[in-house]
Model the fold of this input.
Amino acid sequence: MPRNRSEHFPPEGKLRVYRSRIGGNEWQPLTEGLPQSDCYVNVLRDAMSVDQLEPCGVYFGTTGGQVYVSPDSGDHWTTIVRDLPAVRSVEVQTFP
Done:
């Protein structure tokens, strides 16, 4: 039976971001600080962004209204905003 498109959510209810350091041939799940149970949100196409710092900061928003940040290229995550409407886009700007 085909699944309804509105029923997309992270596999096993675990929120993950994946990173490849070798051009996409291997991918590493990045989960530290992200919900690893009962997480049923989506990340929309324009809802992730990176900054220009070294190491880069990574930011993403969810359809559940959370915004997460990793200041260390995805190694560790923290929630910086909760209880927003669905986050459809995230943009980042750094100042000198």
